[in-house]
Amino acid sequence: MIPGEAASNLPPGRSYHDMGGLPAGPVEPAEHNYAPWEKRVDALMVLLSGPRRNLLKVDELRRNIEGLGARAYDSMSYYERWMAAVSAILIERGVIAIDELGRKMSEIEAQYREATPP
Amino acid sequence: MTRVATVPEFAPRYRAGDAVRVRRAAPPGHMRTPWYIRGQAGVVERLCGTFGNPEELAYNRSGEPRQPLYRIRFGQAAVWRDYAGPERDTIDVEIYQHWLEPVEPASNPGSPAEKAPR
Amino acid sequence: MSSDGHTHDHPHDDAAAHPAHAAVEEPPPGYYAVMQQAVEALLIDKGILSADEIRRAVEAMDSRTPAQGARVVARAWTDPGFKARLLADGTAACRELGIEMGPTRLVVVENTPETHNLVVCTLCSCYPRMVLGLPPDWYKSRAYRSRAVREPRAVLREFGTEIAEDVAVRVHDSTADMRYLVLPRRPDGTEGLDEAALTGLVTRDCMIGVTVPAPS
Question: What is the ipTM of this complex?
Fold first, then answer.
């Protein structure tokens, strides 16, 4: 099945993530060892949504991921989608500001570039 | 005498064994009622408890009044027109009360409500 | 099996310490990995999280594997009282074995001669992580989420599992706050095995319901 094909055929009001019963190919028995950054995304979600902080709700994260749209499902990995959602909710809630996030991301990227051996 | 504040919640309308139908509706936003089960009739297997409404929690609202949640059992042969399996196969889906409506008691045997598996 | 292949003998909380190590051992991080480090650093700076908490959360996650679920199953196979409590309240019964489910409501569904259970989450990928660890990619895949509800027997066949026509296949779509664990049937010929040996027969896949345990 061509990725994204189902999306264009969905009736109005049906979201791309709501895929129960749609045609699909064989279940590939894929597994992967989770990368450290992926586990840390998961940790972030668990800690931020826990009762102690209650900084975001799992329902908000899901809503956000569902809103990423069909292409996100095809082009982003599972933890990429969750990370995008965590950032979006933290920004919406005013926990972090967009500018400070952008600057910190640039800073980290620069550190990696500088650390790369010539 | 002090009064303890209680969380507002809807009273359960259904009991195990009741025949129910899932409403057809397609609001925008975050739903936990899968598309494939909307409009289908099944039988209440049990009341699971009362929970905050995820459709509201998804927008960082309180999700109150809390909604009773039921496990509803559906016959696969009734849900899927081309189901390739025996009549005894079933699917259980957890549905919030506001998505359910009663199925009128059958006036004759063999009507869809009575065919719903127990 | 170690999930990431390198030991945590250096701090990950300081992004500045990471790049030199990363440049030697790992490819440069992708956009979202950078975002993860940035968000983490900001939240630590703001005192919302600590590096220690994050590390502990990852360690807790690593400690959760299907072996925990296997212990629950093996105990249920050998102790009828425990099995009854497990089926009545999965969360409370797991706590008896030192497995903390946290806020998760665990529902254990029993395979019988009449019924075979299969668990899926069509809307996202809800999974009983506290007792099985992180889910495999296939469980989260489009193919599984789409087809497990509509053609469960065909999906089971892809896993090498054939369920007889006189046994009902019961699919559970975990759309809400409950998480499901399948209690498989104890294989024939295992009467002589003790609980420890029985845990070796219980795989993750048979607790999801795509397979059944093989006899020893």
Answer: 0.91
